[in-house]
Design goal:
globular; binds zinc ion
Length: 314
């Protein structure tokens, strides 16, 4: 009996608006869509491969280190001189890296893109907003030059969509996220600027993929009245070429015809961002697959003709 009364009370509260449901937050619809998205368990293949390569590299490096030590001990060699040599090498590398990071920050400034190092995850930012003390010197965020490598490949014309936006580069592990706006009244992404959060392990794939979302959401579709809705004339064609009208199955072993990978079939937005990434970072592979696949050819040509003014990548 008590349970029944409670149920009636809850139903009454929902209808009277005392309990907020998702539908009460229409302008956050896309954020919810993206947040659900980030729960998708399938990582883009290329990111996984890169991870494996990195791990293998570390194992090989460790092995070389071990052998060096053994050799030194065996031959009673001069450990100090080897140690000195390595320390010198390391400081040289970090000096070069520091210079490259400096160049990256200057590049961003020239394009009016703010680069912010942060020590929080996407979920933390989503619910708790941005506060003093969240920030890190970008130099202290590992792998930041991977982001630079990816973004340098994007033509200036397209980078205009990032003008006035922020790239939050996190020290924490995750999958990245597009910040389409900030809704402090609803406690969502308070104090955050439009742009993107990129998380560890930073890869050029992730950076270019997230940029693809910004170009798609703001540049083409003009979500939340973005002033950089510079490609709105492409909206209809974009919907036509990138719509995904079947249910997502992350367990597919092979991508269906028309898709470079399984993750692209998650929804329209992921379809766009993934193929944008392939266009820039795996041009040869994309072109080759498009030769015998009509839908892939349409996607490839959309990028080539409408966004990249004929520029192609290797
Ligand atoms: Zn995505």
């Amino acid at each position: 009996m008590k349970k029944k009364l409670l149920l009636i009370l809850v139903i009454f509260l929902i209808f009277s608006g005392c309990i907020k449901t998702k539908d009460d937050l229409p302008q956050s619809e896309y954020i919810y869509e993206k947040l659900r998205d980030s729960d998708l368990k399938t990582e883009p293949k290329s990111q996984i491969n890169q991870e494996i390569n990195k791990t293998q590299k570390t194992i090989v490096e460790k092995e070389i280190e071990k052998q060096k030590i053994n050799k030194t001990e065996d031959s009673f060699g001069n450990i100090t001189s080897i140690y000195k040599e390595e320390t010198e090498q390391q400081s040289e590398t970090s000096e070069t890296q520091e210079k490259e990071i400096e160049e990256f920050l200057e590049w961003a400034e020239d394009h009016n893109i703010e680069i912010v190092g942060v020590n929080k995850t996407v979920n933390d930012f989503y619910y708790n907003g941005s506060k003093d003390g969240d920030f890190l010197d970008p130099k202290d965020v590992p792998n930041i030059l991977e982001v630079a490598d990816g973004l340098y490949k994007i033509p200036d014309d397209l980078l205009r969509v990032m003008d006035g936006k922020t790239i939050y580069i996190s020290h924490q592990y995750g999958r990245g996220y597009s910040v389409l706006g900030s809704w402090p009244d609803q406690g969502i992404l308070s104090g955050m600027n439009k742009g993107t959060i990129i998380e560890q392990p930073l890869t050029s794939e992730q950076a270019v993929h997230e940029f693809g979302h910004i170009l798609d959401y703001h540049g083409i579709r003009g979500i939340y009245y973005d002033p950089k809705n510079l490609w709105k004339n492409l909206d209809v064609e974009r919907n036509d070429v990138f719509k995904v009208d079947f249910e997502y199955n992350p367990n597919l072993v092979e991508p269906p015809k028309g898709y470079m990978d399984v993750y692209s079939t998650a929804n329209d937005a992921e379809n766009f961002a993934q193929h944008f990434m392939y266009y820039i970072l795996a041009g040869n592979e994309f072109r080759e697959s498009a030769e015998s696949d009509e839908l892939l050819k349409r996607k490839y040509d959309f990028f080539k003709e409408e966004l990249f003014e004929g520029k192609e990548f290797g």
